[in-house]
Amino acid sequence: MVSSIQTSAMHQVMVGHPRPLRRLRAALVVHCILLICGLLIAFPFIWMILTSFKTQFEALAYPPTLLPEQWRWQNYVDAWQLPGSWPKGFPRYFVNTVFIAGITCSGALLTSLVAGYTFAKMEFFGKNVIFIGLLATLMVPFEATLVPDFIIIKTFHWYNTYTAQIIPWIGSVFGIFLMRQFISTLPNELWEAAQIDGLGHAGYLRWIVTPLSLPGLLTLGLFTFLDSWNALIWPLIVTSSDEMRPIQVGLAYFITEEGTQVNQLMAAATFTIIPVLVLFLITQRQFIEGIAQSGLKG
Amino acid sequence: MALTASSLFPSRPVVSSVRRRKYWRTTVLAYAFLLPSIILIATFHLFSIAFAFYISLFNWKVIKGAFLGFTNYQVILGSGDFRAALATTAWYSLFTVIPSMAFAFFAAILLSRPIKGLSFYRTLFFVPYVTSSVAAAAVWRTLFRTDGIFSSLWKWIGVPSPQWLNEPRGIFLLLLQPLGIHLPHWAVGPSLAMVCIAIMSIWYSQGFDVVVFLAGMTSIPKELYEAARLDGASEWQVIRFLTWPLLLPTTFFILVISVIGSFKAFNQIYIMTNGGPAGTTTTVSLLVYNEAFRYGHLGYASALAFLLFGIILGLTLVQFRVVGRSARTISG
C-alpha cells in the first residue's frame, strides 16, 4: 500500500503530471477530428459560395482554383434576373414561397394547437380511437398519396393555385403530436384555477394555454416553415405556370435547364439557402432541442 | 337508516347525470376543436390511401378508364422495372442509413465529452439538414461533374477518374475488376451514380442522427460512467458495454426513421441524375413520379405506390420485432 503510493508519487515527480497532460492531448485529438469532419461537412457550402463569384471560364477551369481570381458579384444579379422578371423569375418565386409558407405555418399552428390541447387536456368519447387513427397516418408514405391527392386537387379545381400548395399541409399529425406533448406538461391545477375563475375550455385555451405554449409553437412553426420552404415534389406536381411556382421548383427548373452556367447556378443556390440558414442560426437552440425532444418522444 | 340515508343524499344519481351531461358537452366541444384537423388529415392522408387503392384498380390515364381489377399489380410484379427500382431503393437505403448512423454515433461520442465549442460543432454538423435539398443537390452535382473537383483530385493522385454520376456500372464491379475478379450479374451492387447520391444523402442526414444520438446520451446517468471508470474500463469498453447498449432504443428509433426516410428520398435523385444513367438510380419513388406525372399512368403509378406502402409497413413491423427483441434480450 505504502509502496504503491510511494511509487506513484515518484512517478509523478519523474514524469510530471500525466493526468492533465493526457487529458489535454485527448482534447486536442478530439478537436482535430471534429474540425476535420466539420470542414468536410462545410466544404460543399464553401465551394458553392466561392464558385458563385467566379467567372464562367474560371468555374470550369482545370485544375480548379479555390479562390476566385476576381470576385464577380454580377453572377448574383444575372442569376436573379435570368429565369425572367416579375411576374416570373426568382423575385416571384420568393414572394410565392414566403406567402405559401406563411399561410401554411399560421394554419398548421392554429389547428395543431387546438387539436393538441384537445388530446392533452380533454376527456371525450372516442379519444383514443381518433388519436391512434391520426398516428396511423404517419405510416403512410407520401408516394402512396401523391396520385390520389393530385386527383383530389384536380377535382376541386385547385390545380395551379396557391390553395393546392397550402391546404393539404395545414392539417399536421406531427404538429398535433408535438403540441399535445408540450401541453400535457402544463399542471392540472392551472385548469382547476381557471375553472374557478369561470373560464371554459375555449377561454382557458385562448388566455392561459396559448401564451404558455409559445416555445412549443415556435418550434412547430420553424419546422413547418422549413418544410414549406424546402418542398419540391408536391408543388412540382400541382403547379404548371411560372407565376405559381415556389422557390424550390423554380430552382429545380433553373438547375436542369440546358445552358445554365455553373457560377450562376451556385449563386442561385446560395440565395436560396441563405434565408433558411439565417433563420436556423437565429433559432438553432429551439430547433435542435425540438428535434431532440420530438425525435425521442415521437 | 337506509331510508334516511337515501333521503339525505338523493343527489348521487343527479351528480352522475350532471357529470354525464358535462362529459357529452365536452365531447361535442372536443369534436368541434378537432374538426378542421380531422377533415384535412382524413381527406389528404386517410381517404387518399383508400382512394389510391381504388385508382390502382383502373386503367386511369388523366381520367378514369376501364376497370382492370388487379391487372396493374400483375403487370408490376411481372415487370423488371419494379424489381430493379426496389433493388435500387434497398441499396440506396443500405448505403445511406448505415454509414450515416455509424458516423453520427462516433461524432456524438466525441461531442458528448466536456469539450469547448460543443454548440459550434453541433451547429456545423446540423446545417446541411436545414438547407434546401434541391440547392444542396445542385452543389453536389457540380462537385461530381466529370470535370469537377473530385475528378481533379483523382487525376492529381494519378488515378483515372471515374464517371461519377454518369457511371451505370456497379460499385463492387468497379472496385474488384482491376483485381481481376469477375462478379456475377447480381453481385455488382448499386451503380457508382447511386453511391454518389448516397454520399450526398449521408452528408445531408447525418446532422439529424447526431442530434438525436446526443439527446439520447444525455439521458444516460453520469454515475454509470464514473462507476465504469472506477472499475478501470477502457474508453473502448465504456463505449462497447455502456454507451452502445444503453443507446439501443435511440439507435432503433433513428434506424426506423431513416429507413422510412430513405424510401421517400426524391429531391436529390431528381436533381442529381433524374433516374439515370441507364435507369440505375431510379428508386421506387422516382418510378412512381415518372409513371404518374411524366407518362400519365395514374392507375399503374397508384398500384406501384400501394405496393410500396405495403412494403414500408411490413419493413417497419419487422424492424420493430427484430430490434425490439434484441433490445429486450440485452436489457433483460
Q: Residue share in helices of chain A? A: over 70%
Q: Structurally, how many domains make up the residues of chain B?
A: 2
Beta-strand content bin of chain A: under 5%
What assembly state would you assign to the polypeptide chains in this entry?
heterodimer
Overall tally of structural domains of chain A: 2
Mean pLDDT of chain B: 88
Q: Give Rg of chain A in angstroms.
A: 27 Å
First and last CA, distance of chain A = 53 Å
What structural category characterises the helix and strand content of chain A? mainly alpha
Question: pLDDT average of chain A, as an integer?
Answer: 87
Task: Report on this structure.
The complex is a heterodimer of chains A (298) and B (332). Chain A has 298 residues and is an all-alpha fold. Chain A folds into 2 domains: 2-75, no CATH class; 80-297, MetI-like fold. Chain A has helices at 2-15, 18-51, 56-59, 74-81, 89-121, 127-136, 142-155, 162-166, 173-183, 188-196, 201-212, 214-230, 233-238, 247-256, 262-297. In chain A, α2 (18-51) packs across α15 (262-297). The longest helix of chain A has 36 residues, at 262-297. Chain A is globular, with a radius of gyration of 27 Å. Chain A starts with a helix and ends with a helix. Mean pLDDT of chain A is 87; it is low at 1-16. Chain B folds into 2 domains: 14-50; 80-331, MetI-like (MetI-like fold, Orthogonal Bundle), CATH 1.10.3720.10. Chain B has helices at 2-8, 11-56, 71-78, 80-111, 118-130, 133-143, 149-157, 171-176, 192-218, 222-230, 235-246, 248-264, 267-272, 284-294, 298-331. In chain B, α5 (118-130) crosses α9. The radius of gyration of chain B is 27 Å and the shape is flat. Chains A and B meet through α2, α5, α6, α7 and α12 of A and α2, α4, α5, α6 and α7 of B.
